[in-house]
Amino acid sequence: MKDHGPDAVCVPCPDYEPARAREALERLLEACGGLDWLKPGMKVGIKANLVAALKPENAATTHPVLLRALVELIEERGGEAVVGDSPGGLFNAAFLGRVYQAAGLNAAGLPLNRDYRTRELELPEAKLCKRATVTAWLLDCDAVINFAKLKSHGMMGLSAAAKNLFGTIPGTMKPEYHFRYPNPADFADMLVDLDEFWKPRLHIVDAVLTMEGNGPTAGTPRPMGCLLAGQNPHRLDLLCAKLTGMEPATVPTLRAAMDRGLCPERLEALELEGPWQDFVARDFQIITQRNGLQFQSLMGGGRRGALFSSFLNRCIAARPGVEKAACVGCRKCEQICPAKAIRMKHQKPVIRRRACIRCFCCQEFCPKGAMQVKRPPLARILER
Ligand code: SF4
Ligand code: SF4
Prior knowledge:
The protein has twelve helices and 14 strands. It is globular and about 55 Å long. By secondary structure, it is of the alpha/beta class. 30% of the residues lie in helices and 21% in strands. The chain folds into two domains: 8-279, 3-Layer(aba) Sandwich (Rossmann fold), CATH 3.40.50.11440; 292-383, Alpha-Beta Plaits (2-Layer Sandwich), CATH 3.30.70.20. Strands 1, 2, 3, 6, 7, 8, 9 and 10 form an eight-stranded mixed beta sheet that branches. Strands 4-5 form a two-stranded antiparallel ribbon. The chain has a two-stranded antiparallel ribbon with strand order 11-14. Bound molecules: iron/sulfur cluster (SF4) (2 copies). One iron/sulfur cluster (SF4) binds at residues 320, 337, 339, 341-342, 351, 356-362.
């Protein structure tokens, strides 16, 4: 539950012009309780979204101008800031160096994380993920601010505040987590466990330039023109779902948070501040994950309903599919696939459907956007 202030705040920010962006960020922070908790000498970890070595204009990563503004605000209060993330891939200086460079963080002069240790932890309060290996740099911080990016997402539908903390799992271990939690509902429960463990002081979402379509790395940049913030990631994501036209119950992290009483079912139950209605994107291109569970009640629940649900899941679940013309045969999808479901044939990936756990790692890490989320015809009919 929220500590104080509104559940979510929206402040217009038309672009990344530094002075305008900083002014918008200041107004945003003021509206959701400010940085009054920040005492001189405190070390604040800013968990950005640095999903891949992509330029800011690709709209996949938290924009460096906003990160710069937040670092300045922290330093002006006598705090020490450090910015970091662990995208898929190695968690080391060489790999992260490339990501920092591409995402414009070096050019912005940001204090970047150089601590690549990991630590194994017990999470006794967790519902599902009772043990986790996490990146250690955030454990050494006195407070965490989660600075996410608003994007569509192959597996989770929505990438915003709650999903962003998956970046606290070292990149090399992410495939193992996909394998441990292949079902989107379980994966979402694991993410909510991580959110509850880290409990960032504040969640901010960069929705100035969002990503629609084939997100979270190869979608289309889409200007939205606002910044969003809140103290509860799920309540903030409920607003993000509204802005992008996603049905909240189809976003697995929202469903998991609702089931735990961390988030209401309806946006109307939230206390919202700012002109968020001006930023609702009615034709935002989303990736819909229809789940058989949504149709279980049609058969009255019980064993019959469960069988029907499982059958529907097989028929309607979205799957990865290759756009052969765009594929350059780089084999990244084959290497990243945690289920070893991809084999190359004539330099194009072939997916073994029975082995695929639908984690969409191949789609997320395809550098050419050639691996896409495909919805079977029945799913499209039910959608209508
Ligand atoms: S990662 Fe993308 S471009 Fe590379 S082989 Fe796979 S589908 Fe083709
Ligand atoms: S083929 Fe793609 S979606 Fe299927 S398990 Fe492999 S990486 Fe995940």
